[in-house]
């Protein structure tokens, strides 16, 4: 049985929306991170090697920022592929959540920030329908991550 609150139709349209932005995973992932670091400078403190970078231009050129942007998008892509299989979905989200909670000690509010920036970028590039069909997925991801954090005593 599924812990997911998405219907089959919602899963399909979410995948369609995600595919559009995932085609350029590295560029779009980089844009999302650069926006997060620029609009929420405190998030940079988690990344020791990004700390000294102040200009968005500098961040965009950084191999480390680009690499992490791609990593974030790949992780979400894995989740999107398993939206119709809660066991597989949780198999991806759980270790990711634990790593960020225990090892990296990342404040869970940052997941919501990054998801909101992804939705914003989707809307800018592909319109409101695209954003709307992916919104439930970001809620699902953030809810599960928050639950993992609670289990880890956050």
Automatic annotation (TrEMBL):
<protein>
    <recommendedName>
        <fullName>superoxide dismutase</fullName>
        <ecNumber>1.15.1.1</ecNumber>
    </recommendedName>
</protein>
<dbReference type="InterPro" id="IPR013314">
    <property type="entry name" value="Globin_lamprey/hagfish"/>
</dbReference>
<dbReference type="InterPro" id="IPR009050">
    <property type="entry name" value="Globin-like_sf"/>
</dbReference>
<keyword id="KW-0479">Metal-binding</keyword>
<keyword id="KW-0408">Iron</keyword>
<dbReference type="GO" id="GO:0004784">
    <property type="term" value="F:superoxide dismutase activity"/>
</dbReference>
<feature type="domain" description="Globin">
    <location>
        <begin position="5"/>
        <end position="150"/>
    </location>
</feature>
<dbReference type="Pfam" id="PF00042">
    <property type="entry name" value="Globin"/>
</dbReference>
<dbReference type="GO" id="GO:0019825">
    <property type="term" value="F:oxygen binding"/>
</dbReference>
<dbReference type="InterPro" id="IPR000971">
    <property type="entry name" value="Globin"/>
</dbReference>
<keyword id="KW-0561">Oxygen transport</keyword>
<keyword id="KW-0813">Transport</keyword>
<comment type="function">
    <text>Involved in oxygen transport from the lung to the various peripheral tissues.</text>
</comment>
<keyword id="KW-0349">Heme</keyword>
<dbReference type="InterPro" id="IPR012292">
    <property type="entry name" value="Globin/Proto"/>
</dbReference>
<dbReference type="GO" id="GO:0005344">
    <property type="term" value="F:oxygen carrier activity"/>
</dbReference>
<comment type="similarity">
    <text>Belongs to the globin family.</text>
</comment>
<dbReference type="GO" id="GO:0005506">
    <property type="term" value="F:iron ion binding"/>
</dbReference>
<dbReference type="GO" id="GO:0020037">
    <property type="term" value="F:heme binding"/>
</dbReference>
